[in-house]
Amino acid sequence: MRILKKKFQGNPEDIRKTYNQEVSQIEFNLLKSEQWAGMVLRKLRISSAFTMESLVTEAEVNGYRDVKLEWLQNGGNEPKIQTVYFMDDAVRMFIDSTATEWKALLKEWGNSSD
Fold it and tell me: Are 4 and 19 in contact (CB under 8 A)?
């Protein structure tokens, strides 16, 4: 969001709307283009919630997950816009980098699923 605030060209009151539209478009782009997307959604659907009871309850985490999954399954929710601030290639590089780091941490902790 910090980068978007620096580069945003529109009305400052529209920054949140632009952020939400662009991130939503990226989510739909990934769902359509990445082989792993369906598997990730299936795993998310059956995953256990991790909570911080003082901040968010298990019911809240599960509720958000269920709403988000349902929202992503409705193609009518896709903004169908050309993103300006969030680029597919940059998001994919972030995902690949984060996945590599996460796998290394899991291996270090003895929890590797490889």
Answer: yes
Structure tokens at 101: 């780091």
The 10s digit of each residue's pLDDT in 75-100 is: 999 999 999 999 999 999 999 999 99
CB 24 within 8 A of CB 71: no
Cα 79 to its chain centre, rounded Å, is 15
Rounded distance between C-alpha atoms, residue 33 and residue 109, angstroms:
32
Here the contacts of 29-36 (C-beta below 8 Å, separation 24 or greater) are 29/88, 30/88, 30/91, 31/72, 33/88
For 47-60, the pLDDT digits (tens) are 999 889 899 999 99
